[in-house]
Design goal:
By secondary structure, the protein is of the alpha+beta class. The protein is built from 19 helices and eleven strands. Helix 4 packs antiparallel against helix 5. The two termini are 37 Å apart.
Length: 542
């Protein structure tokens, strides 16, 4: 697993070097700290790294035309079916190349975790690569009692520590290390990955977000049945206690890298906790340090049993396949899963914010300024308007924030925004973040940022600017559909979050229909002081 790569802090940069590294760092910020995994925009908490799947470019319709012809083609090539146990499949035929991309979408993420068990969804995603009773082990009959003994010893160590029995703790920890070493000898490291790679598979990966866990990779089209066998067994007979404690250390290190040792990581965690009062969006997907430390194999197994049920899983198969063959094999392999009731999430509803909230941190860091506003979920009729507003303000070098704060006033090294933080299945935030340029303050940035935001309320967007942003938004979304995996991700995201994959294409027509009056209406309702949360990361003076 590769979680540990990150930009290193470098002191005494020249201005030019600092600007270049800042641009790299903002990408790191988005991926690791701001969103922790909202596809299709950002992938996070990735478990494995591998070459990207083969891209198959599709024609992009002109910006001014209706999306209907594109939708019509997809309708003709798409097949949906549901197994008797409730598992849903979406199959899209694309015969341009002999490859197939597969995406298993579990409708569960950080928001579904019990209090005190944060991080369990992400932990489970890691363990799903450790294998099954047949894959990843030399002898499961010999391995199983050792794994059970490790869990017993871990519980005994916790009890002894609570009772301050130091000698007992030392004895138990010594036995734990001995048993763990025995169990490690029976593990076939990364056997799942080796099988996939040897069969020509690429892109074996996974990610966990606030509201979903996704497992994906691509195969040559003649390996359809191999994928069915591997993926069905992976979730039918997982061994979630294999290398559990080793993986816990990996995740704790990941948290240290992305939060404890990252000023902006700490800031984002505090900001979320301030912006949300009761909704679990306030909690980090990776989990809190103490919660991760206290998780047990039994906790992960209980979470798996509750949420990894057929009716809570959807699978997309996109590429060079015959849908009838996909259905036949799905019934053979995934039909083995017993039907279970889909869990009903009863998440607390975030109350309406009635006054400005603010949080500040003082750390050794270049100052950052964050500002967020509550907005509705992806299923809301105004979703396309929020997407357009986000693009107007912060999409690339032609955006208003970049041109004003970075190029013209030179107050910031970067100025961007994100609509749908930290997820979009439920009401969420439109978040703006800026990194101060040397010699300037977060208060200067706050004033300049506010001016650009407020201008949307008072001055209608010109037709030329609006059309440019619509074209960019449309092209960006359609580019996501160029690859089999991009299509799989988007189809399932809209199917699960909005109730129908066809809403993906309706979103494009909704973007085209946005008017300057729509933007003013939504801006006036959203960008108000009482709906504002402010985050200031101040530079600590040594």
């Amino acid at each position: 697993m590769n979680h540990r790569s990150s930009p290193r802090a470098v002191l005494n940069w020249s201005n030019q070097a600092f600007v270049k590294l800042s641009r790299l760092f903002i990408t790191f910020l988005i991926i690791t700290s701001l969103v922790w995994g909202t596809l299709p925009k950002v992938v996070l908490a990735q478990t494995q790294t591998a070459p990207a799947p083969t891209r198959t470019v599709q024609p992009t319709p002109p910006a001014e035309s209706s999306i209907q012809p594109y939708l019509d083609r997809v309708v003709k090539q798409l097949t949906q079916f549901r197994l008797d146990n409730g598992m849903k499949f979406i199959v899209l035929e694309r015969h341009q190349a002999p490859v197939v991309s597969f995406l298993t979408y579990a409708d569960v993420g950080g928001v579904d975790e019990p209090d005190g068990k944060t991080g369990v969804a992400h932990f489970l995603e890691h363990l799903a690569f450790k294998g099954t009773t047949r894959i990843g082990t030399k002898d499961y009959k010999a391995e199983k009692p050792l794994l059970e003994r490790l869990e017993q010893l871990d519980n005994q160590i916790r009890t002894a520590k609570a009772d301050n029995k130091k000698d007992e703790v030392a004895r138990l920890e010594a036995e734990f290390k001995q048993v763990e070493a025995q169990a490690a000898k029976l593990v076939k490291q990364n056997e799942l990955g080796q099988i996939v790679e040897q069969a020509g598979g690429v892109g074996l990966n996974a990610n966990t977000s606030t509201e979903a866990t996704r497992y994906f990779y691509s195969f040559p089209s003649n390996k359809l049945e191999l994928w069915m066998s591997l993926e069905s067994e992976r979730f039918l007979e997982p061994v979630l206690s294999r290398e559990f404690y080793k993986e816990k250390d990996v995740i704790l290190e990941e948290r240290r890298l992305r939060v404890e040792n990252s000023p902006i990581g700490q800031m984002v965690e505090k900001f979320s906790d301030t912006a949300y009062q009761v909704h679990p969006y306030r909690r980090p997907v990776i989990g809190y340090d103490q919660d991760i430390r206290n998780l047990t194999p039994a906790d992960v197994q209980k979470f798996y049993d509750a949420y990894y049920v057929p009716s809570n899983i959807a699978i997309a198969v996109v590429g060079d396949v015959n849908p009838n063959e996909v259905k036949r094999l799905a019934q053979i392999y995934f039909g083995r899963f017993a039907a279970k009731t889909k869990p009903q999430s009863k998440l607390p509803v975030e109350p309406k914010q009635t006054q400005t909230r603010e949080v500040s941190l003082e750390l050794p860091s270049q100052p950052w300024y964050l500002e967020g506003y509550h907005r509705p979920a992806i299923s809301h009729p105004d979703n396309a308007i929020y997407e357009i507003i986000g693009s107007l303000l912060s999409d690339g070098r032609t955006s208003r924030l970049y041109k004003s704060l970075v190029e013209k006033q030179r107050l910031a090294l970067t100025a961007q925004g994100y609509s749908g933080f930290p997820g979009d299945k439920y009401p969420n935030l439109m978040l703006f973040y800026t990194l101060t340029a040397p010699g300037h303050t977060v208060d200067e940035l706050a004033t300049a940022l506010r001016q650009e935001i407020d201008s949307l309320k008072t001055q209608p967007v010109t037709d030329v600017e609006l059309q440019r942003v619509k074209t960019q938004a449309r092209a960006g979304l359609l580019r996501s559909l160029d690859s089999n995996m991009g299509m799989a991700q988007l189809l399932l995201a809209y199917e699960v979050k909005t109730g129908s994959w066809q809403n993906l294409f309706k979103q494009l027509d909704q973007i085209a229909a946005v008017t300057p009056a729509d933007i003013q209406r939504v801006a006036k309702a959203t960008f108000t002081p009482e709906n504002r949360t402010i985050g200031k990361l101040l530079s600590k003076q040594g």
